[in-house]
Design brief:
CATH superfamily of one domain in chain B: Immunoglobulins
Largest interface: A-B, 57 and 43 residues
Structural class of chain B: mainly beta
Oligomer: heterodimer
Low-confidence stretches of chain B: 22-37
Distance between the termini of chain B: 81 Å
Strand content of chain A: 35-45%
Largest sheet of chain A: 8 strands, antiparallel
Radius of gyration of chain A: 26 Å
Number of strands of chain A: 16
CATH topology of the largest domain in chain A: Jelly Rolls
Strand order of the largest sheet of chain B: 2-3-6
Shape of chain A: elongated
Chain lengths: 256, 144
Amino acid sequence: MKFLHILLLLLFYCPPLQAQTPPLFFSDGFENGLGGWDEVCDGLVTTADAHSGNSSLRLAFRDFSVQYAVHRVRAEEQPTGSFVFEFHVKLVRFTMGAVTIAALVFPTGSVAVVVSRDGRVGLAFDLFEPPTYGMLRLRMGEWQKIQIHMDYENERIRLYLNDELALEEGLRGRRPPLLELWLGTIWLGGAGNYGMMMECYFDDVLLGDESLVTPKPAITAILTTIAIPLVCIAAAITALVLIAKHRRIRRSAQVH
Amino acid sequence: MTRLKSLAIAVLLVVSIFAVAFVEPVVAQESPQEKTVEGISYLTVTGSLFATEVTVTGYEANTKTLYLTLVFYNNTGTDVTTVTYNVTVYDHSTGDKIGTKLTSSESWSATPSKSYHTVKNYAVSLTTDLPAAYRIVVTVESYG
Protein backbone atom coordinates (compact mmCIF):
# COMPACT_ATOMS: atom_id res chain seq x y z
CA MET A 1 0.00 0.00 0.00
CA LYS A 2 2.83 2.34 0.94
CA PHE A 3 4.64 1.41 -2.28
CA LEU A 4 1.50 2.26 -4.30
CA HIS A 5 1.30 5.59 -2.47
CA ILE A 6 4.87 6.49 -3.41
CA LEU A 7 4.35 5.33 -6.98
CA LEU A 8 1.27 7.54 -7.33
CA LEU A 9 3.12 10.48 -5.80
CA LEU A 10 5.99 10.01 -8.27
CA LEU A 11 3.57 9.71 -11.16
CA PHE A 12 1.59 12.84 -10.38
CA TYR A 13 4.38 14.97 -8.97
CA CYS A 14 4.81 18.21 -10.90
CA PRO A 15 7.52 20.67 -9.93
CA PRO A 16 6.04 24.11 -9.16
CA LEU A 17 6.13 26.29 -12.25
CA GLN A 18 8.34 29.34 -12.02
CA ALA A 19 6.38 32.49 -12.88
CA GLN A 20 7.83 33.77 -16.15
CA THR A 21 8.27 37.53 -16.15
CA PRO A 22 8.53 39.00 -19.63
CA PRO A 23 11.56 41.20 -20.35
CA LEU A 24 10.66 44.80 -19.53
CA PHE A 25 12.40 47.88 -20.91
CA PHE A 26 10.47 50.26 -18.63
CA SER A 27 7.84 49.88 -15.91
CA ASP A 28 6.18 52.16 -13.36
CA GLY A 29 3.29 51.63 -10.98
CA PHE A 30 3.58 55.14 -9.47
CA GLU A 31 4.40 53.67 -6.05
CA ASN A 32 7.51 55.90 -5.75
CA GLY A 33 6.20 59.19 -7.10
CA LEU A 34 6.75 60.66 -10.54
CA GLY A 35 10.52 60.07 -10.71
CA GLY A 36 10.19 57.89 -13.80
CA TRP A 37 8.60 60.71 -15.81
CA ASP A 38 10.45 63.60 -17.46
CA GLU A 39 7.58 66.06 -17.78
CA VAL A 40 4.21 66.16 -16.06
CA CYS A 41 1.45 68.65 -16.80
CA ASP A 42 -1.65 68.88 -14.57
CA GLY A 43 -0.79 65.52 -13.02
CA LEU A 44 -0.02 64.12 -9.56
CA VAL A 45 0.34 60.80 -7.79
CA THR A 46 -2.73 59.90 -5.76
CA THR A 47 -3.62 57.20 -3.27
CA ALA A 48 -7.33 57.82 -3.83
CA ASP A 49 -7.45 55.16 -6.54
CA ALA A 50 -5.13 52.47 -7.88
CA HIS A 51 -5.29 49.45 -10.14
CA SER A 52 -2.64 47.68 -8.07
CA GLY A 53 -0.55 48.77 -5.10
CA ASN A 54 -1.47 51.96 -3.29
CA SER A 55 -1.13 54.75 -5.81
CA SER A 56 -1.74 55.81 -9.39
CA LEU A 57 -1.21 58.85 -11.63
CA ARG A 58 -4.13 61.27 -11.70
CA LEU A 59 -4.41 63.63 -14.67
CA ALA A 60 -7.07 66.33 -14.30
CA PHE A 61 -7.61 69.84 -15.68
CA ARG A 62 -6.17 72.51 -13.40
CA ASP A 63 -3.76 75.08 -14.86
CA PHE A 64 -3.21 73.92 -18.43
CA SER A 65 -5.22 72.95 -21.51
CA VAL A 66 -3.33 69.65 -21.76
CA GLN A 67 -2.84 66.97 -19.11
CA TYR A 68 -0.04 64.48 -19.57
CA ALA A 69 3.02 62.64 -18.26
CA VAL A 70 5.89 61.95 -20.67
CA HIS A 71 8.81 59.54 -20.36
CA ARG A 72 11.73 60.04 -22.75
CA VAL A 73 12.98 56.57 -23.69
CA ARG A 74 16.68 56.16 -22.87
CA ALA A 75 19.15 54.21 -25.04
CA GLU A 76 19.18 51.28 -22.58
CA GLU A 77 15.36 51.13 -22.63
CA GLN A 78 15.09 50.95 -26.45
CA PRO A 79 13.17 47.88 -27.62
CA THR A 80 15.28 45.75 -29.94
CA GLY A 81 12.41 44.63 -32.18
CA SER A 82 8.63 44.35 -31.90
CA PHE A 83 7.34 45.63 -28.56
CA VAL A 84 4.26 46.29 -26.44
CA PHE A 85 3.29 49.42 -24.53
CA GLU A 86 0.83 48.46 -21.80
CA PHE A 87 -1.02 50.51 -19.20
CA HIS A 88 -4.15 50.44 -17.08
CA VAL A 89 -6.46 53.42 -17.32
CA LYS A 90 -9.57 54.64 -15.55
CA LEU A 91 -11.10 57.41 -17.66
CA VAL A 92 -13.74 59.33 -15.76
CA ARG A 93 -14.44 62.59 -17.63
CA PHE A 94 -13.19 64.49 -20.67
CA THR A 95 -14.34 67.43 -22.82
CA MET A 96 -15.30 67.64 -26.53
CA GLY A 97 -15.90 64.71 -28.92
CA ALA A 98 -12.89 62.51 -28.12
CA VAL A 99 -9.65 62.39 -26.13
CA THR A 100 -6.13 61.10 -26.69
CA ILE A 101 -5.25 58.93 -23.69
CA ALA A 102 -1.74 57.75 -24.61
CA ALA A 103 0.81 57.92 -27.40
CA LEU A 104 4.11 56.60 -28.67
CA VAL A 105 6.34 59.22 -30.28
CA PHE A 106 8.71 58.19 -33.10
CA PRO A 107 10.96 60.41 -35.28
CA THR A 108 8.43 60.03 -38.13
CA GLY A 109 5.38 60.93 -36.00
CA SER A 110 3.13 59.59 -33.29
CA VAL A 111 0.71 56.74 -32.69
CA ALA A 112 -2.04 57.93 -30.35
CA VAL A 113 -4.69 55.89 -28.56
CA VAL A 114 -7.98 57.77 -28.76
CA VAL A 115 -11.35 57.32 -27.06
CA SER A 116 -14.53 58.69 -28.63
CA ARG A 117 -17.42 60.26 -26.75
CA ASP A 118 -19.29 56.92 -26.94
CA GLY A 119 -16.26 55.07 -25.52
CA ARG A 120 -14.92 53.42 -28.69
CA VAL A 121 -11.14 53.02 -28.68
CA GLY A 122 -9.08 53.77 -31.74
CA LEU A 123 -5.78 54.91 -33.19
CA ALA A 124 -4.71 58.23 -34.67
CA PHE A 125 -1.52 59.13 -36.53
CA ASP A 126 -1.77 62.88 -37.01
CA LEU A 127 -3.60 65.79 -35.40
CA PHE A 128 -5.29 66.76 -38.67
CA GLU A 129 -6.07 63.24 -39.86
CA PRO A 130 -9.37 61.62 -38.76
CA PRO A 131 -8.82 58.81 -36.23
CA THR A 132 -9.91 55.22 -36.88
CA TYR A 133 -12.07 53.59 -34.22
CA GLY A 134 -12.66 49.89 -33.62
CA MET A 135 -15.85 48.31 -32.34
CA LEU A 136 -14.76 47.78 -28.71
CA ARG A 137 -15.84 50.29 -26.08
CA LEU A 138 -13.96 51.43 -23.00
CA ARG A 139 -16.15 51.41 -19.89
CA MET A 140 -15.98 54.85 -18.31
CA GLY A 141 -15.01 55.05 -14.64
CA GLU A 142 -13.55 51.51 -14.53
CA TRP A 143 -9.98 50.23 -14.69
CA GLN A 144 -9.23 48.92 -18.18
CA LYS A 145 -6.10 47.41 -19.71
CA ILE A 146 -4.78 48.87 -22.96
CA GLN A 147 -1.91 47.57 -25.07
CA ILE A 148 -0.31 48.87 -28.24
CA HIS A 149 1.55 46.09 -30.01
CA MET A 150 4.12 47.34 -32.53
CA ASP A 151 4.63 44.22 -34.65
CA TYR A 152 7.57 44.96 -36.95
CA GLU A 153 7.71 41.39 -38.25
CA ASN A 154 4.23 41.62 -39.81
CA GLU A 155 4.35 45.44 -40.18
CA ARG A 156 1.18 45.93 -38.11
CA ILE A 157 0.07 48.01 -35.13
CA ARG A 158 -2.49 46.25 -32.93
CA LEU A 159 -4.56 47.90 -30.24
CA TYR A 160 -5.90 45.66 -27.48
CA LEU A 161 -8.54 46.55 -24.92
CA ASN A 162 -8.67 44.11 -21.98
CA ASP A 163 -6.72 41.52 -24.05
CA GLU A 164 -9.22 41.74 -26.90
CA LEU A 165 -8.12 43.01 -30.31
CA ALA A 166 -9.82 46.37 -30.86
CA LEU A 167 -8.09 47.56 -34.01
CA GLU A 168 -5.28 46.71 -36.39
CA GLU A 169 -3.50 49.20 -38.64
CA GLY A 170 -0.42 49.40 -40.86
CA LEU A 171 2.87 50.70 -39.39
CA ARG A 172 2.70 54.01 -41.27
CA GLY A 173 6.48 54.38 -40.97
CA ARG A 174 6.46 54.40 -37.17
CA ARG A 175 9.80 52.65 -36.69
CA PRO A 176 12.42 52.77 -33.90
CA PRO A 177 13.99 54.58 -32.21
CA LEU A 178 11.09 55.09 -29.84
CA LEU A 179 11.45 58.63 -28.51
CA GLU A 180 8.70 59.13 -25.92
CA LEU A 181 5.93 57.37 -24.01
CA TRP A 182 2.90 59.58 -23.40
CA LEU A 183 0.07 59.17 -20.95
CA GLY A 184 -2.75 61.68 -21.34
CA THR A 185 -3.49 64.33 -23.94
CA ILE A 186 -0.98 64.78 -26.73
CA TRP A 187 -3.40 66.65 -29.05
CA LEU A 188 -6.26 69.10 -28.73
CA GLY A 189 -8.84 69.96 -31.42
CA GLY A 190 -7.79 68.73 -34.86
CA ALA A 191 -9.67 66.27 -37.04
CA GLY A 192 -10.64 64.12 -34.07
CA ASN A 193 -12.11 67.04 -32.11
CA TYR A 194 -9.95 66.07 -29.12
CA GLY A 195 -10.63 67.60 -25.73
CA MET A 196 -9.01 67.88 -22.31
CA MET A 197 -8.85 65.31 -19.55
CA MET A 198 -11.06 66.39 -16.70
CA GLU A 199 -10.32 63.27 -14.61
CA CYS A 200 -8.30 60.20 -15.53
CA TYR A 201 -6.12 57.67 -13.65
CA PHE A 202 -3.18 55.60 -14.94
CA ASP A 203 -1.39 52.67 -13.33
CA ASP A 204 0.95 49.73 -14.08
CA VAL A 205 2.72 51.14 -17.14
CA LEU A 206 4.93 48.63 -18.95
CA LEU A 207 7.14 48.70 -22.01
CA GLY A 208 8.10 45.16 -22.86
CA ASP A 209 8.42 42.52 -25.52
CA GLU A 210 5.63 40.74 -27.38
CA SER A 211 5.08 38.16 -24.62
CA LEU A 212 2.99 40.84 -22.81
CA VAL A 213 0.21 40.23 -25.33
CA THR A 214 -2.07 37.31 -24.51
CA PRO A 215 -5.09 38.03 -26.70
CA LYS A 216 -8.50 36.53 -26.14
CA PRO A 217 -10.11 35.22 -29.31
CA ALA A 218 -11.90 38.14 -30.93
CA ILE A 219 -15.69 38.05 -31.29
CA THR A 220 -15.32 37.84 -35.07
CA ALA A 221 -13.10 34.78 -34.69
CA ILE A 222 -15.68 33.15 -32.40
CA LEU A 223 -18.39 33.91 -34.94
CA THR A 224 -16.31 32.51 -37.77
CA THR A 225 -15.36 29.32 -35.97
CA ILE A 226 -18.64 28.51 -34.18
CA ALA A 227 -21.61 30.55 -35.31
CA ILE A 228 -21.13 30.38 -39.07
CA PRO A 229 -20.87 26.57 -39.33
CA LEU A 230 -23.83 26.23 -36.92
CA VAL A 231 -26.01 28.57 -38.96
CA CYS A 232 -24.94 26.88 -42.20
CA ILE A 233 -26.01 23.51 -40.76
CA ALA A 234 -29.28 25.04 -39.52
CA ALA A 235 -29.91 26.55 -42.96
CA ALA A 236 -29.21 23.22 -44.67
CA ILE A 237 -31.57 21.35 -42.27
CA THR A 238 -34.30 23.97 -42.85
CA ALA A 239 -33.87 23.64 -46.61
CA LEU A 240 -34.07 19.80 -46.41
CA VAL A 241 -37.18 19.92 -44.19
CA LEU A 242 -38.86 22.35 -46.59
CA ILE A 243 -38.01 20.15 -49.59
CA ALA A 244 -39.32 17.04 -47.79
CA LYS A 245 -42.53 18.86 -46.89
CA HIS A 246 -42.96 20.00 -50.49
CA ARG A 247 -42.49 16.37 -51.74
CA ARG A 248 -45.03 15.06 -49.18
CA ILE A 249 -47.62 17.62 -50.31
CA ARG A 250 -47.00 16.71 -53.97
CA ARG A 251 -47.28 12.97 -53.20
CA SER A 252 -50.56 13.41 -51.28
CA ALA A 253 -51.90 15.52 -54.17
CA GLN A 254 -51.01 12.68 -56.63
CA VAL A 255 -52.82 10.09 -54.40
CA HIS A 256 -55.98 12.23 -54.34
CA MET B 1 -41.30 27.44 -56.77
CA THR B 2 -41.41 26.31 -53.11
CA ARG B 3 -38.00 24.69 -53.53
CA LEU B 4 -36.63 27.96 -54.87
CA LYS B 5 -38.13 29.83 -51.93
CA SER B 6 -36.52 27.55 -49.36
CA LEU B 7 -33.19 27.78 -51.16
CA ALA B 8 -33.44 31.56 -51.12
CA ILE B 9 -34.13 31.54 -47.36
CA ALA B 10 -31.08 29.37 -46.75
CA VAL B 11 -28.82 31.59 -48.88
CA LEU B 12 -30.19 34.71 -47.17
CA LEU B 13 -29.40 33.25 -43.75
CA VAL B 14 -25.82 32.42 -44.68
CA VAL B 15 -25.26 35.83 -46.30
CA SER B 16 -26.67 37.70 -43.27
CA ILE B 17 -24.35 35.81 -40.91
CA PHE B 18 -21.33 36.64 -43.09
CA ALA B 19 -22.38 40.29 -43.08
CA VAL B 20 -22.51 40.35 -39.26
CA ALA B 21 -19.31 38.38 -38.75
CA PHE B 22 -16.98 40.46 -40.90
CA VAL B 23 -17.61 43.98 -39.70
CA GLU B 24 -15.01 46.50 -40.85
CA PRO B 25 -13.61 49.02 -38.32
CA VAL B 26 -15.48 52.29 -38.38
CA VAL B 27 -13.65 55.35 -39.68
CA ALA B 28 -14.65 58.41 -37.72
CA GLN B 29 -16.44 61.21 -39.46
CA GLU B 30 -14.23 64.23 -39.96
CA SER B 31 -15.18 66.76 -37.32
CA PRO B 32 -15.58 70.37 -38.37
CA GLN B 33 -12.37 72.19 -37.50
CA GLU B 34 -14.31 75.37 -36.79
CA LYS B 35 -14.86 74.03 -33.26
CA THR B 36 -12.25 75.57 -31.01
CA VAL B 37 -10.46 74.01 -28.10
CA GLU B 38 -10.89 75.59 -24.69
CA GLY B 39 -9.44 79.06 -24.09
CA ILE B 40 -10.26 82.72 -24.16
CA SER B 41 -9.79 84.94 -27.19
CA TYR B 42 -10.51 88.61 -27.70
CA LEU B 43 -10.86 90.48 -30.95
CA THR B 44 -9.77 94.10 -31.08
CA VAL B 45 -10.04 95.78 -34.45
CA THR B 46 -7.86 98.76 -35.38
CA GLY B 47 -7.11 99.82 -38.93
CA SER B 48 -8.92 98.86 -42.08
CA LEU B 49 -7.24 95.50 -42.72
CA PHE B 50 -7.62 93.14 -39.80
CA ALA B 51 -8.15 89.58 -38.64
CA THR B 52 -11.89 89.17 -38.35
CA GLU B 53 -11.75 85.56 -37.19
CA VAL B 54 -9.13 83.78 -35.05
CA THR B 55 -9.92 80.11 -34.46
CA VAL B 56 -7.82 77.53 -32.63
CA THR B 57 -7.90 74.43 -34.84
CA GLY B 58 -5.51 72.29 -32.83
CA TYR B 59 -2.63 71.95 -30.40
CA GLU B 60 0.25 69.47 -30.35
CA ALA B 61 1.59 68.99 -26.82
CA ASN B 62 4.79 67.16 -27.81
CA THR B 63 5.96 70.01 -30.05
CA LYS B 64 4.08 72.73 -28.10
CA THR B 65 2.59 74.00 -31.36
CA LEU B 66 -0.69 75.90 -31.54
CA TYR B 67 -2.57 75.81 -34.87
CA LEU B 68 -4.84 78.71 -35.83
CA THR B 69 -7.12 79.56 -38.69
CA LEU B 70 -7.05 83.27 -39.41
CA VAL B 71 -9.55 85.12 -41.57
CA PHE B 72 -8.46 88.61 -42.62
CA TYR B 73 -10.84 91.28 -43.85
CA ASN B 74 -9.74 93.96 -46.28
CA ASN B 75 -11.76 97.11 -45.79
CA THR B 76 -9.21 99.47 -47.35
CA GLY B 77 -11.01 99.73 -50.67
CA THR B 78 -7.75 99.03 -52.52
CA ASP B 79 -6.13 95.92 -53.97
CA VAL B 80 -3.85 94.12 -51.52
CA THR B 81 -1.24 91.65 -52.77
CA THR B 82 1.06 91.24 -49.76
CA VAL B 83 0.54 91.55 -46.03
CA THR B 84 2.83 91.38 -43.01
CA TYR B 85 1.23 90.21 -39.78
CA ASN B 86 2.29 89.16 -36.33
CA VAL B 87 0.61 86.57 -34.09
CA THR B 88 1.38 86.65 -30.38
CA VAL B 89 0.03 84.30 -27.71
CA TYR B 90 -0.14 85.40 -24.06
CA ASP B 91 -0.79 83.47 -20.86
CA HIS B 92 -4.03 85.09 -19.74
CA SER B 93 -3.43 84.67 -16.01
CA THR B 94 0.18 85.95 -15.88
CA GLY B 95 0.19 88.18 -18.95
CA ASP B 96 3.45 86.57 -20.12
CA LYS B 97 4.17 86.25 -23.81
CA ILE B 98 4.38 82.50 -24.56
CA GLY B 99 4.70 82.52 -28.33
CA THR B 100 5.07 84.83 -31.28
CA LYS B 101 5.42 84.53 -35.03
CA LEU B 102 5.89 87.17 -37.70
CA THR B 103 4.84 86.42 -41.25
CA SER B 104 5.95 88.92 -43.85
CA SER B 105 4.98 89.48 -47.44
CA GLU B 106 2.53 86.62 -47.70
CA SER B 107 0.96 86.74 -51.13
CA TRP B 108 -2.64 87.70 -50.80
CA SER B 109 -5.60 87.30 -53.06
CA ALA B 110 -7.99 89.70 -51.37
CA THR B 111 -9.20 92.51 -53.58
CA PRO B 112 -12.09 94.94 -52.96
CA SER B 113 -14.34 92.45 -54.75
CA LYS B 114 -12.93 89.56 -52.68
CA SER B 115 -12.40 91.05 -49.23
CA TYR B 116 -11.63 87.93 -47.18
CA HIS B 117 -8.39 85.98 -47.03
CA THR B 118 -8.08 82.77 -44.99
CA VAL B 119 -4.88 81.28 -43.57
CA LYS B 120 -5.51 77.68 -42.45
CA ASN B 121 -3.66 75.86 -39.64
CA TYR B 122 -1.15 78.64 -39.02
CA ALA B 123 1.43 77.14 -36.64
CA VAL B 124 2.76 79.12 -33.67
CA SER B 125 5.42 77.51 -31.43
CA LEU B 126 4.93 78.12 -27.72
CA THR B 127 7.60 78.30 -25.04
CA THR B 128 5.37 76.65 -22.40
CA ASP B 129 2.45 74.24 -22.36
CA LEU B 130 -0.83 75.77 -23.50
CA PRO B 131 -2.34 77.40 -20.40
CA ALA B 132 -5.97 76.97 -19.40
CA ALA B 133 -6.63 80.57 -20.46
CA TYR B 134 -4.67 82.31 -23.17
CA ARG B 135 -4.97 85.38 -25.36
CA ILE B 136 -4.16 85.53 -29.06
CA VAL B 137 -3.34 88.89 -30.63
CA VAL B 138 -3.12 89.22 -34.41
CA THR B 139 -1.51 92.46 -35.58
CA VAL B 140 -1.36 93.51 -39.20
CA GLU B 141 1.98 95.33 -39.44
CA SER B 142 1.81 96.46 -43.04
CA TYR B 143 0.21 95.71 -46.40
CA GLY B 144 0.70 96.75 -49.98
